[in-house]
Design goal:
Blueprint (H helix, E strand, L loop, with lengths): L2 E5 L4 H12 L5 E4 L5 H10 L7 E4 L2 E4 L1 H11 L11 H30 L7 H21 L13 H16 L7 H12 L1 H10 L15
Parallel strand pairs: 1-2
Antiparallel strand pairs: 1-3, 3-4
Helix pairs in contact: 1-3, 1-6, 1-8, 4-5, 4-6
The structure holds glutathione.
Glutathione (GSH) binds next to helix 1 and helix 3.
């Protein structure tokens, strides 16, 4: 096995993929994309000019986009935990929930965080306000969806939960999941208790001071 992952421990999309690696103890070389290793960043930028992490190199093949990397691992490096259900209908449901968490939780969370990194005069108050509204709507839909469920889809911890873990983790920091959404809050706690997720969260602890609005003193 010759896997190299270009990633950063504090990045939500990188955590999504790291959780998949950790679920099956898949060995890989970790090239951390930080200021301490400019060469890693140069290699990554050549692999993927869009420079959105993570990126995986498997032998002579570069694989990008977190969901595609996880599907690639499921296909090429299967382990004891099924990264994607084998049943096509269940796999489709997992992909739907994966898209849900990326587009309707991760994206608005990133919008709020990214706006804080802009110079004050370039902030997008309208876009940020929309992102908060989207998170409210998204949490409300999830509250119903998660009723009576342990994980996002019935067949067990899947691609969808890997997208859910970092997105709900950080979204709650910028837009608290209201108390009335008990199913969503409990699901977030279940995700955080999963050893693969706990490991990804722990590895990112040293970087919490970088969180633009300030990381809350919890989790
Ligand atoms: N759709 C991509 C999104 C990746 C992404 O947005 N990564 C963030 C880090 S969490 C990034 O590289 N941001 C750098 C930038 O926006 O310039 C995926 O699923 O991998």
């Amino acid at each position: 096995m010759n896997l190299t992952l270009y990633a950063h421990p504090f990045s939500s999309y990188c955590q999504k993929v790291l959780i998949a690696f950790y679920e099956n103890d898949i060995p890989f070389e970790y090239r951390v994309l930080g200021p301490e290793d400019p060469a890693a960043f140069e290699e990554f930028a050549k692999l993927w000019p869009l420079k959105r992490m993570p990126a995986l190199v498997d032998g002579d093949r570069a694989v990008v986009e977190s969901s595609i990397i996880i599907e690639h691992l499921a296909l090429r490096h299967p382990g004891r935990v099924q990264l994607l259900p084998q049943d096509p209908a269940a796999a489709l449901e997992a992909r739907f929930l994966d898209r849900y968490f990326d587009h309707y939780v991760m994206a608005p969370m990133q919008k709020i965080v990214a706006d804080l990194l802009r110079p004050a005069e370039s902030r997008d108050a309208y876009g940020v306000s929309d992102a908060h509204v989207l998170l409210d709507t998204s949490y409300a839909w999830l509250e119903t969806r998660l009723a009576g469920r342990e994980w996002a889809i019935g067949s067990g911890f899947s691609l969808a939960d890997r997208a859910a873990a970092p997105s709900l983790f950080y979204a709650d920091w910028v837009h608290r999941i209201p108390e009335q959404f008990a199913n969503v809050r409990a699901y977030r706690q279940r995700l955080l208790a999963r050893p693969s997720v706990a490991r990804a969260v722990d590895e990112a602890r040293p970087f919490r001071k970088l969180f633009p609005p300030g990381a809350p003193d919890r989790d």
